[in-house]
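As noted in the main text, all predictions were made from sequence alone. Below is one such record, for Transmembrane protein 161B.
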Amino acid sequence: MYTLVLSYKNLIFQIILSLSLSIILYFISLPSLILQGLNTYIHPDDVNPTKQTQSSGPKVAIRRPSDQNVNGSSELRNRKKPREKLFEFDETKAQIFRLRLGDAQICSRLYFDSFRSCLNCFVVAFSCFLLHKYLILNVGESENENDNGNDNVDYDYTTSGVLKNGSLVPIVIGILGFFRVLISLFRVSIERSAFKRSERGLGLVIGVLGFFASLVICVGVYPWLFDFEFSSIDGFGKLFVALLSGSITGFLYLAAGKNARAFWLGTDQIRCNLPIISCGWFAQVIFYANYLLLGFTSLLWINPLGELLVNKNIDGGRNGVSLSLVGNVGMAEADFVKFRLLCLLLSGVLQVIALRWYVQTFLNEAVLSWYQRLHASVVPDMEYSRAKVFLHNHYLCLAVIQFFAPAALVLLSLGLSQVDEGLFENFEVACVLLPCSAFVKEVALFLAWWVSFVWFVFTSTYLAFYRRGILYIS
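Prediction:
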């Protein structure tokens, strides 16, 4: 019995970790803890319908400088013309109020259950990946010790199958978490009242283009341009990967607009000088670091840049002085592979860290709309800004899913790509039906890079349109 438990200790540890985290996350609302304390806004029709001064209650976040009276019932001074000949503007109907989100308010938002399930699956799967990496390292160390102590015993843990090394749990939970995030992203992308029909149609067209672009990469039409190999995957497998990549491309296009607007407002690119809209200096550093690291990571799998960072002569190549920098400077090829994976990991983690600031900037976008409508004319029409404030509050969790999904897809795919090879060699039927090793090592890594690359391209395109004045935030 003790020998059996010792043989399957990795699997037991994985099961205990996944079950314990699932139970803890069932009783603790992690999404509420992440979003709690954010500032949201309400834009009522009439602040003071009873014409009484409100000494208690919500405080006005922004008020026009000329508004000296709270209820705004007194007439403006120095009025020379009769009152009935002028347009009357009641400023009490234009005030906006700032509130802090609580647990009850967050749980009542649309798509909260979807975001909670995505976040819980991501936390459990990512924790299992970390434990698997730690257990594999310990297994390698114990294997070396046993080989040094007894040369007659061969402890081959890495080829003992998914049960003994415990890889079955992170593989299953990782795949389920990946498709759970993808399904949630699909649900919010087809929300009719959240996107225009033209946006959904353009997203469909871009998804088709993404399908053909990923199919070209999978087939290997340009092997000198992209550093990917799908030699162990057949034609149907490549077609499935292309379909999956095209779907992700269409979904991320619809989400990239919010990401670009959040970056544009959070870094105060419009120079509005409103502290209530822009973020602090630390959040702006996170925004810039996230964007730059995402772009740098996306370029590491493109061969011209990769060749500049790899020194092919570091392990004893030709001697002498070379005038070419390509292949003669940089790091070793094995270190470059680890460096690329580390950049992917850091970019995904940094997106998760910046999630709260992105959501806050999304809520602040409604304040900018209110501010623009308030100063657009002498008698502003506040119905548009009132509707936008309501929609931003109503679709809060929808925006959170779109901000969170790219980072979750990158980290889950990266975790799947780091699971060992040779996992299903004891299950020949499974290997015949599904190219398991290729999925774990090649397809998962390609999807992690594809999400980062597409997310960076779409965000950069939107930012270029905002910079050139083709698009604007209203």
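The mean pLDDT is 80. The radius of gyration is 27 Å. These features were considered when defining construct boundaries for the mutagenesis experiments described in Section 2.9.
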